[in-house]
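Today's session is about reading a structure prediction critically. Students often jump straight to the picture, but the first step is always the sequence itself: look for stretches that repeat, for charged clusters, for runs of hydrophobic residues. Only then move on to the predicted structure, which in these notes is written as discrete structure tokens rather than atom positions. Here is the chain we will use throughout the hour.
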Amino acid sequence: MAKTTATRAKKTSTVSKAAARRPTPASPDAYYAALPADRKAIMLQLRRAMGKALPKGFAEVIQHGMPGWVVPLSMYPPGYHCTPNTPLPFVGLASQKSHIAVYHMGVYADPTLYRWFTEEWAKRVPRKLDMGKSCIRFKKPDQVPVDLIADLCKRMTPKEWVALYEARFRR
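Below is the predicted structure for this chain, in token form.
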């Protein structure tokens, strides 16, 4: 029985083995400082553009081993249902092994925002969109559409994100 439970727990874990071995940076500044030179410039450019574009109320933190912006517990005390007592994630930014990733929860949760983003991508970017549910992947740092990502970030306030989150995910 114990073996079955341990096996089941392993299969449901959302943290990769590589991520589990990486130390969690103490701050967003520490995360960016540790980036390799070929990724640092674009990651800092994305950080500045996203931080400037996001509506007032989101807070920059390290969450899930990467920098991102959240709805702080002071604004939304219930926090994230998957990890109680942690702020509600909204957008994350990560330098993965083979790509740069922007994790935007709003584009995953809101079909209208998703439609806007995919249509804007087709208008502005001459490459195929590489996207999962909330993960937008960029294999080449020089091909990141920073302005489009900034435009995406400004399209939802913390209050709107909390309302959508509660309607779609909170049980």
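Discussion point for the tutorial: The domain at 27-168 is CATH 3.90.1150.200 (Aspartate Aminotransferase, domain 1).
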